[in-house]
Structure formats: structure tokens, C-alpha cells
Amino acid sequence: MGVGDKKVPRILTSNDRKWTGIPGGGHWVDLKTRAKTDADEMYGKGGGFILAWGLPVFLDSKGNLIELANWFGVYANAKMCFAAMMKLAVDCRFGFEMVREGLPCNLYFDIEWMGCEEEEETTILRILVGIQVYMRRMYGREFALQITRGSLAKGGWFKCLFHVIVTGLVFDDNQQTMKACAESIQATLSEED
């Protein structure tokens, strides 16, 4: 592809679905912008649910690690998407919600670093406690934290991922109000966290 060429979006084929392990249902494309447009067209402005799916990493014939991009699936709602994902084996679920700007969302955090997961376990625990302490102080109650974790190959290293969702606390949008809350929580953490 030359400079200035636009990438033409692809729609997932049945062959693609087999090797990627993508869950059933949904309308799948390989561009985030196309998924947003399709969701708006199919379910109304801001409607639908978009699932991003990390593609498998593999070694080419020369032993080089090949990292692929994501596919994006548009479903009518989260319930339909999660029902499709539940049909997959637990260790084969590589999807995550694509949060769209300007729409209501739960408070969430993406905690990522390069390296070994075990090295950062105490840091993660301190961050989780910090989130809970802040939420209790600001809102006067306990909130459940849903935590998913994983890793992916990135430039010869492993990128460790912790995704934390604070359930029961929904913000009007993720760019203003939720971001301000997340930054307030971050300000309470120690510098090493």
C-alpha cells in the first residue's frame, strides 16, 4: 500500500472465522471506524455493541513473531455478544468491548506494562486497593471490581494487561466525567504505581 492509500475494510469470511476463533453471530469487519459506522447504521446512532477481537500471534517460516491487528464485531447488544462468547472455551475468549466516545459507560481502567506479570503483582494489588478506597470515600459504598487479565506479544516482549471495570457506577460519557474520576483516583496513588 502506498502513501496516502486508504485501507479498504474487509468483512469477515467463514474461513476467517475458523482460524481466528471469533465467536458466532455479529457483523465483523477489520477496521474500528467501519465498525462504528456499521453499528450506527444498523442500530441507530450510538446503538449496538462493538466487540474487538485480538487475532492469534504466530511464527512465520523464518521464526519471526507475527502480530496481527484486531477484528471488530457489531452485535445488537452486549447480552447477544456475551451469549456468543460463552459458547467458546474459557481460554479462547480474546474479546473486549470497544467503548465509544460520548456514550454512557462504567468506570474502567486499562493497566498495562511490558515484562513479567509476577514482577508487578504487588503493584496491581496496591492499585486495586487504591481504587476501592477512593470509591468508598467518594461514593460511600463498596463497588465490585471485575478484572480480566491477559498478555500479548509486542515487539519481542510480552505486554501484560489488566482491565478493571467498576460495576454499578455509570458515567454519562468516557471522555469527560469518567476520565476526571479516573484521573482523581490516579492522583491518590503513589508515584511508583
Topology:
Blueprint: H1 14-20, E1 27-29, H2 32-43, E2 49-54, E3 58-59, E4 65-66, E5 70-75, H3 78-85, E6 95-97, E7 105-114, H4 121-139, E8 145-154, E9 157-171, H5 177-188
Antiparallel strand pairs: 1-5, 2-5, 2-6, 3-4, 7-9, 8-9
The N- and C-terminal alpha carbons lie at a distance of: 41 Å
* Uncertain runs: 1-5
In quaternary terms, these chains amount to single chain
Helix and strand succession? Answer: HEHEEEEHEEHEEH
Number of domains: 2
Question: What percentage of the residues does DSSP assign to strands (E)?
Answer: 25-35%
Structural class: alpha+beta
Q: Outline, from the CA principal axes?
A: globular
Task: Return Rg in Å.
Answer: 19 Å
The strands making up the biggest β-sheet line up spatially as: 1-5-2-6
For the largest beta-sheet, the strand count, sense and barrel status come to: 4 strands, antiparallel
Number of helices: 5
Query: Roughly what is the average pLDDT, rounded to an integer?
Result: 81
Total beta-strand segments: 9
Fraction of residues in H or I helices: 25-40%
